[in-house]
From TrEMBL, chains A, B:
Species this protein is from: Rhodobacter maris
Span of domain HTH marR-type: 12-141
SUPFAM superfamilies (UniProt xref): Winged helix' DNA-binding domain
This protein's record includes keyword Transmembrane helix: no
Domain of life from the UniProt record: Bacteria
SMART domains with a match to the protein in the record: HTH_MARR
Lineage, uppermost ranks: Bacteria, Pseudomonadati, Pseudomonadota, Alphaproteobacteria, Rhodobacterales
InterPro entries: HTH_MarR-typ (IPR000835), Tscrpt_reg_MarR-type_CS (IPR023187), WH-like_DNA-bd_sf (IPR036388), WH_DNA-bd_sf (IPR036390)
Alphabetically ordered keywords of this record: DNA-binding, Transcription, Transcription regulation
Official protein name in the record: DNA-binding MarR family transcriptional regulator
Pfam families: MarR
GO molecular function, one term: DNA-binding transcription factor activity
Length: 145, 145
DNA sequence: TCATATTACATAGCATGCTATTTATATGGA
DNA sequence: TCCATATAAATAGCATGCTATGTAATATGA
């Protein structure tokens, strides 16, 4: 009967984990020359789109825990990518601003990330690529409850 | 022109990361009552299939770095899931063996993991599920170079 | 208005993953 | 046999992610 059988090669969770680790490793290698890490890049994407956001706003947009974002922002400040300024109306909060260094990295970093995505999907037809993104979005929606 | 535009909602890497974190969080919650973590579960899958493997064998099968596996095995030994025995013919190596506690967890743990997978894929037709696994495997193959 | 609840953020502790280094043992060839 | 190289593990250091807590400030409602 093999009641407890579990084939990791056909486990969605196992494949998702392996795929995500590969994506992260490739992205890390691609942006390391820029002095960036994957979490920093993800955070910069939000700040390139709109500067002056609070930590809480980034937490909501990137769907990581607040403590995780606090750690990433601390390393970004340490590395000269962002500055924190007091929030104009809420003494609990701070607004987050890019340094010149961070602004200058936008084009190179996004191109590097797009290259990783392109390489990952290179074996799929355009229709398959679109379907793949759609399927991932649907699984995310389901797991997000 | 928006040369540097990057829409994370349509980035395969971003979606893969989010999906994998959700899978891992759900699995962690599901097996936490058993006293297991995701990496421990993944390692147990290999040892349930074949006891007495070396660390190097697990590294090859699970595609994590040797240092990562060493850490996971250390925590598993600490938690009473595995024992290390001297390798019969190679003094550098050790063989890894399950404790009774670990053997007793196989059915419950695999059922919990299968439930997470089933829930994640519940919104997909059987054809879409098969296609999804195939697409992930192909992307993994491509990223693995 | 004042007590209570909520919110923003920091911090501690831990698991997982990676790179790099070190130590001990095996192995292959000169 | 001996040396150079390869292999098995351990360890250190760091990034990311999570849970759980603590603190200060704000919002809410009786």
């Amino acid at each position: 009967m093999d009641i407890a059988s579990f084939d990791k090669a056909s486990s969605a969770g196992f494949l998702a984990n392996m795929m995500a680790r590969l994506f992260e490793n490739r992205l890390a290698a691609a942006i390391r020359p820029l002095g960036l890490t994957p979490a920093q890049f993800m955070t910069l994407l939000e700040l390139w789109a709109e500067e002056g956001q609070t930590q809480a706003a980034l937490v909501a947009r990137l769907a990581v825990e607040q403590a995780t974002m606090a750690g990433t922002l601390g390393r970004m400040e340490r590395d000269g990518l962002i500055e924190r300024r007091p929030h104009p109306s809420d003494k609990r909060a701070q607004t987050l601003h890019l340094t010149e260094r961070a602004r200058a990295l936008e084009a190179l970093a996004t191109e590097a990330a797009q290259a990783v995505n392109a390489r990952a999907l290179a074996g799929l037809t355009p229709e398959e690529q679109a379907l793949f993104l759609d399927l991932m979005a649907r699984v995310i929606g389901r797991l997000g409850k």
